[in-house]
Amino acid sequence: xxxxxxxxxxxxxxxxxxxxxxxxxxxIDGVGVAEISKxxxxxxxxxxxxxxxxxxxxxEAFASGLRPxxxxxTADRAGGSGSLTDFIDDYLSFGHRDNLAAGCPMSASASxxxxxxKIVGERFAEGFEQIVALMxxxxxxSAVKADKRQRALAMMAAMVGGVGASRAVAKADxxxxxxxxxxxxxxxxxxxGEGAS
Amino acid sequence: xxxxxxxxxxxxxxxxxxxxxxxxxxxIDGVGVAEISKxxxxxxxxxxxxxxxxxxxxxEAFASGLRPxxxxxTADRAGGSGSLTDFIDDYLSFGHRDNLAAGCPMSASASxxxxxxKIVGERFAEGFEQIVALMxxxxxxSAVKADKRQRALAMMAAMVGGVGASRAVAKADxxxxxxxxxxxxxxxxxxxGEGAS
Lengths: 197, 197
Prior knowledge:
Two copies of one chain form a homodimer.
Chain A: H1 5-26, H2 33-39, H3 44-50, H4 54-79, H5 83-91, H6 94-98, H7 105-113, H8 118-137, H9 148-168, H10 174-192
Helix pairs in contact in A: 1-4, 4-8, 7-9, 8-9, 9-10
């Protein structure tokens, strides 16, 4: 069946959306292409007409899932102060922890990406660099002596690990889950120089 | 076939060992019970004679994988000073990053545990608490103002996230991978109060 260019673009977006939610919710290895096609309301064939492999789709879904956070940070920055604090607050919120399917793909899939094709790691690396660069510009003076890039790299790693660990223990020990998020929030704020003059 | 008590204990250990390596290397959802049994030199039936489910085996493999790190930290502590620094150095080493199969199961599986049965999260929570308690006792005075438990919780989250992120980008951007580990090492050391009097 011949598909118009417009329809093809629509199909691609539907596949990326479905894949993004399913991969975050159930893991990249936990979901097959059949299920993704079905959720997007399409066939296997339509998926392979758009993406040469599941890995290629995973990479695009990963990049797409990072976009809202990056856009929000950039918009906030254009609009005025407070953007880094808002970003950290959102990232380490109970709401983000409890919303796997629509949250940051880095914390949803951190430990899985190493096992995927290089192309997925490339999207992770690009996203990590972009967020770190944006964070770096928002840093103030801090009691922590490391340079700004090191501070931003460590903050982002701590946030990815904080959300990951708090999700891992959420069912078994909700109190510990909350404590992890609050502790990372406090320390990341100190590294950023919040409250310092 | 009737199995002696001794043989049953041996089988159980072989299954836990095989599962521990495979789960870390390939992901909990990336490996099936058939492959685990085979790697342990046993049958499906022998696995289910020991564990009611794959989740029960995953939980025991997870706890077993945490033991060497906990034992090392406890032994170091008994033997004298320097244990927290050694633990952080080992955890954030290039060697640990590059050795998925024998490394810490928390960084190997952080983002996957939330999707597993509660029993796996219970082992994660217990291990996290035990390590945090040991770390807390090694903390010195630091420029970071949060209390000791918060500092230890955030340090462990940063270490799990640091190893996870550095592994995720290792194939695509080895330089960034090294930078993440070094930055987390530097900042975690500052949070611990290394070098402070």
